[in-house]
Amino acid sequence: MPSVSEARLESVLGTAVDGIVVMDERARILLFNKACETLFGYSAEEVRGRNVKVLMPADYAHAHDGYVHNYLETGEKRIIGIGREVRGMHRDGTEFPIELSVGEAATPEGRQFIGIIRDLRQRKAVERRLAEAQAQLVSMTRISALDEMGAAIAHELNQPLTAIMLYLQAAKRKVGDDHRDTKLIEIVDKGVREAERASQIIQRMRRFVEKRDPERRPVCVSRLVGECLELVTLGIDCRDVEIVNEVGEDLPDLSVDPVQIQQILVNLIRNALDAVRQAPVKRVGITAAAAGEDMLIRITDSGGGVPAEVVPTLFRAFSGAKKGGLGLGLTISRSIAQNHGGDLAVEPNGGEGGAAFVLRLPVVTPPRDGQADAPPGRRGQTA
Asked: What is the CB-side half-sphere exposure of residue 356 using CA atoms within 13 A?
């Protein structure tokens, strides 16, 4: 029959929340409580007499006996009397974080070492969720500030844009009256159109920030892509870049807000041109194909591609790696696509190397018998 002290010890070991393991000078396990059985997946009978290394990952186990021997020889403490975070290993090979405190006791049978083990997985999970929540809060704060700044900038830009259009229109009349220079008139006309386009973009961006639905209408894909290419290449030397536009004219119309989709395509084409600047082969390709009720517009480049470790955060605000950028271009582009019921994704560019950005957008749905044609609602929206 156990003594009172033995019964008390057994009760403490059996009810302790933390794992308790006792080993001798040769690192053999003498005692293994119920919490340790739950934590490591072994029964006390299975580990009693075995080296404590059975509870450690390989990198810890390899050095453990040396630490014990060094302490017995020199008295130099590495972990004894000091709590520290290490890793334990479950019977099934799973590694997990633990907090380990080791004490020493002199007994008639020699020195023994008592380890108190606390499972840190739940605490780590809470810390991780807290860090993610804090990071999200910081990001949302920055985006909110950017929204306010964008609204202020849009308001301030409207006046100079209006003045630019008035000056250009006056210049056009002056040139037409005095010189009849058709080439110069054409250039001024383009300037007026681009100023109007800039004004439209600002208004659409304000609508987007205010979470309004896009102003959809049927849009020709080939014409839209052609206008975007003209806008991107205006004033940029692209003579050493092969730009291949393979978008056919026989595709169904898109049901989109053209100005918003122009923002996406212009951003993607500019990114593709930037990606091939230093590449041995400088090629940017644009294709489009219908896929059911959607259109897939694919912009490819022969650049260095997107590193695998960057892909998970590529469309996250303020995470862009482009020097001097805020990392908002792809974030806004994907949000616009999803607001249309589509999406924007990245994938490797097959055997050619580089990256391929695939923009999915809804096409104009043919009307059913007896029903008027209407732009499709949001379908298949993904985060």
From this structure: 16
> Rounded CA gap, 241 and 288, in Å?
20
Task: For 122-212, give the CATH class.
Answer: mainly alpha
Tell me how far apart the alpha carbons of residues 76 and 73 are, in angstroms, rounded to a whole number. 8
Total-model pTM: 0.48
Phi, psi of 134 (to 5 degrees): -65, -40
Which has the minimum average pLDDT: 125-139, 157-171, 199-213, 351-365?
199-213
Note the CATH number of domain 4-119.
3.30.450.20
Please tell us whether the domain made up of 218-383 is placed in CATH 3.20.20.150: no
Confirm if 215 and 182 have CB atoms less than 8 A apart.
no
Q: Copy the structure tokens of residue 352.
A: 């050619």
CA distances from 170 to 181, 185, 191, 198 (A): 15, 11, 12, 19
Strand 283-291, strand 294-301: pairing: antiparallel
Listed by start position, the domains of the chain span 4-119, 122-212, 218-383
Q: Which is nearest to 199 in space by CA: 156, 242, 250?
A: 156
Q: Residue 357: is it exposed, middle or buried by C-beta count within 10 angstroms (0-12/13-18/19+)?
A: buried
- Answer whether 52's CB lies under 8 Å from 40's CB: no
CA 102 to CA 175: how far, in whole Å?
Answer: 90
Residue 68 structure tokens: 């014990």
314 vs 127, 139, 338, CA distance in Å?
Answer: 24, 15, 16
Of the candidates 251, 225, 358, the residue with the CA atom closest to the CA atom of residue 301: 358
